[in-house]
Amino acid sequence: MPSDSPSSSGPSRPRRVHITSLRLTTSERRRIGAQAHAAGLTVSAFIRRAALGRRIRARRGHLRRDAIYHLSKIGNNINQLARVANTVGEVRAIELLEEALEDLRHALAELTDSRAR
Q1: Domain shared by 111 and 64, yes or no
Q2: Of 103, 104, 109, 82, nearest to 94 (Cα)?
Q3: 44 in the same domain as 72
Q4: Domain limits for position 21
Q5: Separation CA 18–CA 50 (nearest Å)
């Protein structure tokens, strides 16, 4: 059986050599995955910390990165809107604007839901 002692060339923490399987429903897997993502952890690290009674907190930087990502997408949509408005005409520009606004509403709803938790 492998030892939990550190290898001579590796870091001073014990190597993880044991694999444990876990059966979950699709809903449980999604919830655990979302919680791990919010904490900035892999699913394995999240489950390990939870099982060992360690405190798990959502990382604020994670929310900021998500906001930046969504705002960047919206900015790209608005940029496309400006190009289309200059070349295609007003009707298509209005359609693209509605799409960009829907993306914005979705991003804001996600940020609002994340802060409420």
Answers
A1: yes
A2: 82
A3: no
A4: 1-58
A5: 17
Q: Nearest to residue 115, comparing CAs of 66, 49, 56, 55?
A: 66
User: pLDDT tens digit string along 7-16?
Assistant: 455 558 899 9
Contact status, residue 96 vs residue 71, Cβ threshold 8 Å: no
User: Residue 67 in contact with residue 111, Cβ under 8 Å?
Assistant: yes
Tell me the per-residue pLDDT of 37-92, one tens digit each, with 9 for 90 and over.
888 889 999 999 999 999 887 776 666 677 767 777 887 777 777 777 777 777 66
Placement of tokens 């999240």 in the chain: 46
Q: What angle do CA 70, 93, 81 make, to 5 degrees?
A: 40
pTM (whole model) above 0.85? no
